[in-house]
Amino acid sequence: MCAVELVKNQATKEPNKELTAQIVQECYRRGIIILSAGLYGNVLRFLSPLVITDDQLNEALDVIQEVFEDLA
User: Which domains does the chain show, CATH number per domain?
Assistant: First the structure.
């Protein structure tokens, strides 16, 4: 498992729950399932299966990158 914490401001570390929810929803709409987690709901969890192929992983990462670029 890997995780990424999203914050509104790096100095204050204020959780960005709204952006996290948008990313989860948009990834799902594009065929990628990502889970949100954390005490404040601002953490993205990536849980890829052990049997994932390199092509599948690269495709998923491309989608995730596109979603970040579109929403950030």
Answer: 2-71 (3.90.1150.10)
